[in-house]
Each structure stands twice: as structure tokens, then as C-alpha cells.
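Bug #77: duplicate submission created two jobs. Keeping one. Sequence:
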Amino acid sequence: MKRWCLLLAGLLTGSVFAAGSGPIVATAFGARGDGVADDYSAIQAAVGALREQAGGELYFPPGTYRIATRAKAAILLDGISHVTLRFAPGAVLLMDNLQKDGAGGGHGVVVRGPATDIRFENVHVSWKTKASRRSNGDAFRFEGFPSDEGTISQISLSGCIGENSAQTGAVFMGCSDVFVRDFSPVNTWADGLHFNACRRVNVNGVRGIGNGDDTLAFVTYYSEKFEGKTGTVFSFPALNEWSNSGSNAVNVSSVGGRANGMRISGGLGINVSNVSVSGKWCGVQLDSARRTTENRAVGWGYPASRNINLANLSIRDCRMGLIVRSLNLPPGTPESDWHFGLNISNLSVSNIAEFGMDIQGVAGVTVANVRSDSPVRLRNLRGEVVMTNIVQRNAEFSIVGVQGEKTGGFYPNMELREAEIASPSEVENGNLRISGLELDGAPFIIDRFAGLKVGDARFGGEVKISTSHDVAFRDSAFVRAPEIVNSERIEQDGKELK
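Kept job's structure:
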């Protein structure tokens, strides 16, 4: 009976739909696409036809499909596999269903798992009026579950746009084998493109403009035991294959807005290259934290990311450039919380208000080939960090604080503990290694630090070492002799400096 009703709807609108014979056309079910009528009911009928034939293509001809009805989603694909959602050039899903207080009144497109083979082509979701605050309204929302049985798999998002959304441009939760190409999140309240507890993600082309949070985020949260259900975020006690593992992203652009151009928290096995960020609070951030309820609380926790490779990063006109840090980890915190496995190569930072690079409270970081005109700070490191081929112009390069896992860290209220020097027994000499360092008009400051080796360096400004020990320079040149205060075992080519 339902199929005959759908067929009759097609006859009345002048377009006959036969299940399985071709695309389901939204206008065949009464959608006007004139930007005036509320097309919600007509679109539900078209989705019903899609469900009836267990998949197929849902096609929107050119037009503005206004949604004035508040609901979970304008288009809800709940447990339907083998679906293609395709918009013609000029077709827009216009969300005009804000709550009376201006908060979001529903999502644009939602896919709920389990499902497989989902394809979106040129789908444009836009809010007529931007919500008054971050609230209910993702342009694209994929609600899977991090298991072989519950995931949404084989997803393709190509040439799509999420504009003025009350929350994210696109969010993927518990999804597998995801392909995103040429995605444009514009003026979103929250992240542009967000992955939580996914695996095997491939992104080629993100153009974020004015995103209210991170333009691209790979995040898996920490909890002592697994938490989460379909439609919510997921947390794990340790990194695993659902920590966005096996993922790659290239050609990421982020301009304006807040938070980070890109963020990786709790990631495993992620490769990212060709990232350009300007006008954000921070260009690229990798962090770890434990959730707290103290004042200045941290609402989420995530372990240190491992097997992360970042290449060809360009960051300019931001408050911060590259951040790698632990947020609130006290002394004695397990190594999994602060020992990263991170390789960064070919980083350019320019016109950064505070720090072009800020590496703090972590270990397991390698950075190579950096060009910077902004301050660099290494603070309270906990273990091995390696930096090679660093060119620093007219801005301070500072190394401050303890290097050891038993000291440093934070007080429970997130206030940073005072930097202090580690005892010789706490650190391995040379845990921090820097080579190929060129400082032009840039002071080099070492304060309360232990276990530093510097090779093949050219210091074109002042060098000051205070309250430190076990610092060795090799094949290095100074324009003036280093100033050494209250320090010991400071050497140049095997000879002690006084």
C-alpha cells in the first residue's frame, strides 16, 4: 500500500517513480525548492521511498529547499545502506527552523548506523540565519558505533558545503573507511570537520572559513572504561584502532574564526600534509589532558597521540603557531598521558603574536626544517625531544624548566607549577637534542634546564644560561660569549665554559 501511495504522489506531480529504476527526485514528492514553502514533509516522503526500496539515489534538482519544521534532521537516513544523496548545481537545503531563543532547531543531514555505502555529492546545507549560540544543528552528522557490527562504513562526502551551522560542518562518530573530498565548512559555530572514534579516514581538500572551533579535528576521548552509544561521542581507556587510526589528510586550509586550524587529540596512526592556517587562535595543536572538575576545569580527557606525522605546515597571523602540550597532568602521571609519538617536518610560522612553537610537558616529539620569525618555547619537557634545521629570525628561542617525569606539571586547579630544574639522576643527558640551529638576531635562553645537546648551531644574538646543568655545544659559533649564571657542566666541544 505504501508503494502505491508513493507512486500516486509521483503521478500527481507529473513524475513517475518506479523503485530501483532510477533516482528518486525530491520534487516528484512535492518539494517546491522555491525558498518559500516548507519542504520538510515532501522530503520525508522521498526518504520514505528510498527506505522502501532499500537504498538508491535521492536527487535534488536546482532550487532552494527550505526547512521550517523543527526535527532531528531535515534528511534522516536511519539504518539505510547503499544510498547516494546528490544535489544539482544550485540546489541548497536551507535550514530556517531555529528555536524561539535563536538556538538550532535540528540537523541538516543525519546518517545513523549501522549502514554501509553512503555517498553525498555536492550537497549544500545552509542556515538562513546563524544561531544565537552553539547548539543543535550539524550540517552533516554521521552516527555510527566503533565496532565492525555497528559502524557506518564506506562513506564518501564529495564537493559538499556546510554553512552557518549551529554546530559542526560535518561530524563523524564511530565511522569507518571515510572519504572526504573538497569539503567547505563556512561560518560554523563549532568544528568544521570533526572525527571521533573513527578509523581509516581519508581527507583531500578542506576549506574552512570562519569556523567557531577547530577547522579539522581528530579526537578520541579518554575514560577509565569505554563510554558512549550511537549518537554520542565515544571514550576509551587507551588508544586503539578506533582512535582515528590509519587516517590521512592533505590540502587543509583554515582562515579566520576561533580555536585551531587543526587539532589532534587522542590519535593513533594519522598522517597530515599541506596545511595552511591564518587568522585563528592557533594554527595546529596536539594535546593531552585528564578531565577535571576543579576550577578552570578541563571538560574532556585524551591520551597522548602516537604515530602522528605532520608535514608542510604554514601558519601565519595567529595568536599561537604550533602547540604540543599536556594540559593538566600532575607529576607521576602515566607515560601514556604525555609521551607522544610525533614527527613534524617543514613548518613555517610567521607573524605569530605569542609563540610560533610551544612544546610543553611532553616527550617523544621530533621537529625538522622550521622557519620562524616568532618566539619558540620549550617548557617543562618530560623526556626526549629532537629538533633539527631550525632557522629563527628576530625572536627569542627559550628552553625553560624541568626535564623529567617526576616533577613539573600542574596543580589540581590547572595552574602551572613553577619551573624547576631536575636533578641529574632524573634525566638522561641529551634528552633534548638540537642541531642545525641558526639564530639571527634571536636571543637563546636556557633557564632551569638539564640534559641539552646542541650541534652545528649559529648564535647571532645573546646566549644566556641560568640555573642549568649538562648542556653541551658542538661545532657551534657565538657572536658573543654565553652568559652563564649558577650553572655547571656547560661545555663547548668538550671544554667547560665558565
